[in-house]
Every structure is written in C-alpha cells, then in structure tokens.
Amino acid sequence: MSLVEIRWHGRGGQGAVTASEITAIAAIDQGKYAQAFPSFGVERRGAPVEAFTRIDDKPIYIRTKVYEPDIIVVLDPTLLGPEIARGLKENGLAVVNTDKSPEEVKKLLGRDDIKVAIVDATKIALETLKRPIVNTAILGAFVKASGLVDLDHVLKAVKSKVPPRTVEANLEAVRRAYEEVVIA
C-alpha cells in the first residue's frame, strides 16, 4: 500500500473531524500508519469544515493539508460543487451523503473521471440516532467503497470515540450505510 490521502468536507456539528479520527484509529489498529487533523475556518456550528486523514504502510512525515486527495468524503450535500472536488486525483473516489444518483453527483462535481459512492447518511442518522449527525453513517459507506480499513476495526474505533449512550445507535448507522451504499 502506498500513501492514501483523504479530505473530509462537512459543516460544524456533523462530525467530519471525528470521522477522520475514527478512520485513523481503525487504520492504526490494523497495523498501518495514519494521521488525522482538522482545518477550521470560522469555528461555529454549521460553518464549512475540512478534515484530513492519511494512511500508509510506512511512517508518514507529511504535515500539510491534503491538496490532492485520493478520496473525498462529503458529509453535507449542500457543499457539492466543483470546488469540493478540487485536486481530487483522476480515478479518485468521492463518498457523498446524498439522495441524488451517482451521475447527478458527478455532474455537480464537474468530474466524470472518478468513482462515486452515494448513501443517504442523513436519513440513516435520523432513523438511528434521531439527529442529523451523519459521521458514523458516512463511515459505513466509506469503508465499503474504499476498502482501506476493515469494518470491524471501524466499529471498534466508533465504540472508543462516541458517547456511551449512543454507541449502539452509531454502530447501527455504520452497518446500515455499509449495506446501503451505491458505488458507481
């Protein structure tokens, strides 16, 4: 495995930073090297947020933002547009929380040279968590579409990062999105 870089896009309160951290924890638990870190503009609920994850089989010495990701993960469908796909490598992957088709997403991103994985993470979060916090649902889709980390390791990492009272609902969100994701 060579270095894989992931850029997460969401809004404050949706859990993009936590999702990037859970991914890194799961990768490390599998014996890989990983790093996760956020980038905030205005720190307030609802403001756009970026988070980054790097995974490799060898130590990672890069400490900059991810400018040319292999994968982008979009937690908030209102952010969809060409700017979100900036730098995404050719044949890269976009994992998107949406009820739109993969073709519609590619059109919104202005890219037809990428793979798209879609899941209605908002619906899953509302049904499992009773709140529109979509990070664990999008993680299930990410795991299935990317193949970078194993589902069992992600579930273990979720248990370590979410409040105890919401563990079971979050695990259900991950599992449902893993089953419901559409990859095109």
How does this model look, in words?
Its EC number is 1.2.7.1. Residues 12-179 form the Pyruvate/ketoisovalerate oxidoreductase catalytic domain. This is pyruvate synthase. It catalyses: 2 oxidized [2Fe-2S]-[ferredoxin] + pyruvate + CoA = 2 reduced [2Fe-2S]-[ferredoxin] + acetyl-CoA + CO2 + H(+). Keywords: Oxidoreductase, Pyruvate. The chain is an alpha/beta fold and 184 residues long. The chain has a single domain (4-183), classed as Pyruvate-ferredoxin oxidoreductase, PFOR, domain III (Pyruvate-ferredoxin Oxidoreductase, domain 3, 3-Layer(aba) Sandwich), CATH 3.40.920. The chain contains six helices and seven strands; from the N terminus they run E-H-E-E-E-E-H-E-H-H-H-H-E. The chain has a seven-stranded mixed sheet with strand order 2-3-1-4-5-6-7, with helices on both faces. Helix 3 packs across helix 4 (135-146) and helix 4 (135-146) packs across helix 6. The longest helix is centred in the N-terminal third of the chain and has 14 residues, at 16-29. The two termini are 23 Å apart.
